[in-house]
Design goal:
The complex is a heterodimer of chains A (336) and B (192). Chain A contains twelve helices and twelve strands. With 336 residues, chain A is of the alpha+beta class. Among the domains of chain A are: 46 residues, Uridine Diphospho-n-acetylenolpyruvylglucosamine Reductase, domain 2, CATH 3.30.43.10; 105 residues, CO dehydrogenase flavoprotein, C-terminal domain (Enolase-like, domain 1, 2-Layer Sandwich). In chain A, the strands form three sheets. A five-stranded antiparallel sheet of chain A has the order 4-5-8-6-7. In chain A, strands 9-10-11-12 form a four-stranded antiparallel sheet, with helices on both faces. The radius of gyration of chain A is 20 Å and the shape is globular. The model of chain A has no long low-confidence stretch (mean pLDDT 97). Chain B has 192 residues and is of the alpha+beta class. Chain B has six helices and five strands; from the N terminus they run αββαβββαααα. In chain B, α3 packs across α6. The longest helix of chain B has 16 residues. Chain B starts with a helix and ends in a 5-residue tail after the last helix. Chains A and B meet through α2, α3, α4, α5 and α6 of A and β4, α4 and α5 of B.
Chain lengths: 336, 192
């Protein structure tokens, strides 16, 4: 590991000024990804600016019923929050599906959004990787890419974003509050994380020195019946092979509105706008759900060994939305 | 300058050593330890090599196996991914201090009675993790297999214990007995 200096900033403004001024400075949150990447030689910061003691660790309810989640709130505290569990179960489910009990106690919300891909080649400094070293080439296209992306890929990069939480936040239209050298700015989550294009090393739309300070989740009453379903190679403590965050609002048997996002299929959480558009006004049936998933996944460009993700995500979508419709029916039929 | 010294200086980017080291005060098992550290030192290495507490084990050193689990400010964490420089004023409890000297924590007793290990290398991490996990369950935290997310309290079934302990690997696969030992303690009220 490269030797580094350590700095604990007094406030947000100082943190941003220090990181903006030093090309090899980086923020330290829970460290669950960054410290590992430093051990692997993938991340080589010369200065760590520790933001974990800044006053960004609270979860607040907004007047409109939404949530404001501080960037250094630990994943486990967010998953345990009663408002999150009651009003946004997909958020709690996504958090609980991620990592292990220990890692959730360490990992922060801001760090979760900005964590790096677990592509094998990105994490191995002896292999070429355009994300780690622009222009080096991509070993994953012809190599081990079973876990990698099928949507929004480029010739340069087929990496996936590994977060579960971010998939639920994308489905919920979350807005990320960032502090940049020029001042604070709101960025919709869907626009914070980039698709790889020909610059896979640029992962966010923040400027150099930008710090995530909070995430706002707007109210969505029908998300009280919502969930996150994750398929993976073992029952627990594994990254997704594919995942779905979903909520559906019904008028009788018709889809009034729907939120749908896919995980482990792209360089960022994949909000399924095509499927959502296809579903509004349609009967809330498995047939409709399947057709909508097919419409979204028509754009998929699977590689040699990850074509299974197309039917996997389709089936997850149909099963998850069907379960949510059943949950709505049970709730409507329930008489105390 | 020797090759080694030149290499070391290059690794520091030409910076003086004092910028790359820090002094922190960490409470470890009720003793405040003044540590003078290379900033790269993990809590795991600080415990084992500076404090002299070798109960905490290094397995993968990448946050994947749980052998290094300790309690940091009352919560279970993986000490291999915590930089000790971040811990000034923090409180760490290791397996050595789960019970008063000469005594056993209920989890330790049940691990013995249930034969919840073979080689024993993962055991300190399992014990610290289970201690933290039982505290989380007492606070009503749900898990990925909890059906009712808003319940005040979730019964620690075997499925719940397995899910909540998934961050601790046992390559001898003593899992059935580990689950049984933890189930015993949970059923007895989850003594802390």
């Amino acid at each position: 590991m490269r030797a580094f200096r350590y700095h604990r900033p007094r406030d947000i403004a100082e943190a941003v000024a220090v990181v903006a001024a030093e090309p090899d400075a980086t923020y330290l949150g829970g460290g669950t990804n960054l410290v590992d990447l430093m051990k692997l030689g993938v991340a080589r910061p010369g200065l760590l600016v520790d933001v974990t003691r800044l006053p960004l660790d609270t979860i607040g309810t907004l007047p409109d019923g939404g949530l404001r989640i501080g960037a250094t709130v630990r994943n486990s505290d967010l998953a345990a929050d009663l408002t999150v569990r009651r009003d946004f179960p997909m958020l709690a489910r996504a958090l609980l599906a991620g990592a292990s009990g220990q890692l959730r106690n360490m990992a922060t919300v801001g760090g979760n959004l900005l964590q790096r891909t677990r592509c094998l080649y990105f994490q191995d400094v002896t292999k070429p990787c355009n994300k780690r070293e622009p222009g080096a080439g991509c070993a994953a296209r012809e190599g081990q890419h079973r876990d990698l992306a099928i949507l929004g890929t480029s010739d340069a990069c087929v990496a996936t974003h590994p977060s579960d939480l971010a998939v639920a936040l994308a489905a919920l239209d979350a807005v990320v509050e960032v502090q940049e050298p020029a001042g604070p700015r709101d960025i919709p989550l869907a626009e914070l994380l980039r698709l790889p294009g020909d610059e896979p090393d640029r992962e966010t739309t923040m400027v150099r020195g930008g710090l995530v300070t909070a995430v706002r989740v707007p109210p969505l009453p029908y998300a009280r019946v919502s969930t996150y379903r994750k398929a993976r190679d073992r029952a627990s403590f594994a990254f997704a092979a594919g995942s779905v965050a979903a909520a559906v609002g019904l008028d009788d048997g018709t889809v009034r509105d729907v939120r749908l996002a896919f995980g482990a299929v792209a360089h960022r959480p994949w909000r399924a706008y095509v499927a959502e558009d296809a579903l509004r006004g349609q009967p809330a049936t498995p047939e409709s759900f399947g057709r909508a998933a097919d419409a979204e996944l028509a754009a998929a460009q699977p590689l040699r060994d990850n074509g299974f993700k197309v039917p996997l995500v389709r089936n997850l979508t149909v099963a998850t939305l069907t379960d949510l419709v059943d949950s709505h029916r049970r709730a409507a039929a329930w008489v105390p | 300058m020797t090759d080694v010294a030149a290499g070391a200086a290059a690794a520091r980017g030409g910076l003086p050593d004092r910028d790359l080291r820090s002094r922190v005060a960490v409470r470890v098992n009720d003793d405040v330890r003044q540590l003078d550290l290379d900033n790269r030192t993990t809590l795991l290495d600080a415990l084992r090599e500076q404090v002299g507490l070798t109960g905490t084990k290094k397995g993968c050193d990448h946050g994947q196996c749980g052998a290094c689990t300790v309690l940091l400010d009352g919560r279970r964490v993986q000490s291999c991914l915590v930089l000790a420089v971040t811990l000034d004023g923090a409180e760490v409890v290791t397996v050595e201090d789960l019970a008063p000297a000469g005594d056993l924590h209920p989890l330790q007793s049940r691990f013995l009675e249930r034969d919840a290990y073979q080689c024993g290398y993962c055991t300190p991490g399992q014990l610290c993790s289970a201690t933290g996990m039982l505290a989380e369950a007492r606070r009503g935290w749900p898990s990925a297999v909890t059906t009712d997310l808003v319940a005040d309290r979730t019964a620690l079934t075997d499925a719940e214990i397995r899910e909540r302990m998934s961050g601790n690997l046992c390559r001898c696969a003593a899992y059935p007995n580990i689950v049984a030992a933890i189930r015993d303690v949970a059923a007895a009220g989850g003594a802390a």
